[in-house]
Structure formats: C-alpha cells, structure tokens
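Design request, tokens follow.
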C-alpha cells in the first residue's frame, strides 16, 4: 500500500518538476528577449551576452524537437541584433556570434518544419559570411558539367 502511495507521489512530483522546468525555460527566453531589446535601445553588445546565457539555460530544458517556436524567434532576434550592432561598430566577433545564433535558429526552424524561416535564416548566414570576408565556394566547371 505504501509503495503505491510513494509511486503516485513520485509521479506527481516528477510532473510538477517538469512543469516548473518548462516555466523556468520560458522565463529564460523572456529574459533573453528583454536583453535583446535592451541592446537595441542602448546600442551595446553587453546585454546580448546575457541573452546568450539565458537561451543556453533554456536549451537545458528542451530537446530541439520540443522547443517552443517563441524560443526560436528570440534566437533569430539575437542574431539580428548581433548583425545590426556588428555593422554599426564594424565588429567581426559580433558577426561570428550572429552566425552562431542563426545556426541554432536554423536547427530549431528545421525541427519545427518552418521551411520559410529556415530559408530566410540561411540568407542571413550568407550575409554574415560575406561580412566576415568568407566567399561562397564556386564549384569547378568540370564538376558542374
């Protein structure tokens, strides 16, 4: 009898923990969104580091397949802000961090089946590549033919 009670109590506590973890993950995503907004208002890259940390904490609670779309959108906003401030300050490390944010967002968009967002993010990656001086590899004419 006590074993049944313990089993039910354990399942209840595990469900409560999962619910709390999901809430904490969304709070971290909201914090990241606010830090991105603050960076845009102050034209300072500093808050973006906090946004990266908050999004990293969020990923501890979700598998890529289960990540809410809102977190993907915050990831995109993070990349966009790195690009905007990187251009304003001619800051190559900001472009690299934008690429990292975009790569994560591409993975999330792929898992969510959001093909239009995935294509848009790939285009943003190409822009970041060009700002970093990376040129697309042109296939050899012999390989094309």
């Amino acid at each position: 009898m006590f074993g049944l009670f313990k089993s039910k109590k354990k399942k209840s506590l595990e469900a409560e923990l999962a619910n709390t973890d999901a809430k904490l993950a969304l709070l971290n995503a909201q914090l990241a969104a606010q830090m991105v907004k603050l960076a845009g208002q102050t034209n300072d890259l500093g808050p973006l580091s906090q946004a990266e940390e908050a999004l990293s904490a969020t990923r501890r609670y979700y598998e890529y397949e289960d990540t809410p779309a809102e977190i993907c959108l915050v990831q995109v906003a993070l990349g966009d802000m790195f690009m905007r401030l990187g251009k304003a300050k001619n800051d190559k490390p900001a472009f690299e961090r934008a690429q990292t944010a975009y790569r994560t967002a591409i993975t999330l968009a792929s898992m969510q089946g959001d093909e239009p967002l995935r294509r848009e993010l790939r285009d943003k990656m190409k822009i970041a590549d060009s700002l970093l001086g990376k040129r697309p590899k042109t296939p050899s004419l012999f390989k094309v033919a």
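Comment from the thread starter after seeing the answer: thanks! The first helix runs from residue 2 to 42.
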